[in-house]
Amino acid sequence: MKIVVVSDSHADVKSLKLIRERHLHDADLFIHCGDSQLMSNHPDIQGYLTVRGNCDLDQQYPLHRVEKLNHRETLFMTHGHQYDVKYSMQRLYYKALEVGASIVCYGHSHCIGAEMNEGILFLNPGSVVLPRNTKEKTYAIITAEIDELEVIYLEVSTGDALIRQTFNR
After folding, report:
1. Which class for 150: exposed (0-12), middle (13-18), buried (19 or more C-beta within 10 A)?
2. Above 90 in pLDDT, residue 27?
3. pTM of the full predicted structure?
């Protein structure tokens, strides 16, 4: 299973379109972790499973989602502002345990980061428009295999792989 993860696009429809077109034929799922600043009926957010961030005005977006992806993977996605992810991962970790998530995707900080904690992958794809801990504008791809999860961070404009991490289960 291949999941394309974006966050914090802040009305940058060009990047959303580019990423979607680039991976349309090889991705199983596209997710947006909030702060798209687009209305839910905007054509360029269609095809993305989306949650509401602190800068999103459209109340049609849920604050978080739990999605059973297959018999093994349960995805929890949120923007992160309600879990104080800029300060600690503790509240997000406990929510992941509560919902039985194997993969947690979030945004808000605009900082890339992936870590495995007790069998749960926590991933922030950074920002496609306003990165904070890297100069590159980024998004991520998660490839879920039986015995491992691979995370690749890509640069938005070129699609070049910047960082590749593999987590054993």
Report:
1. middle
2. yes
3. 0.96
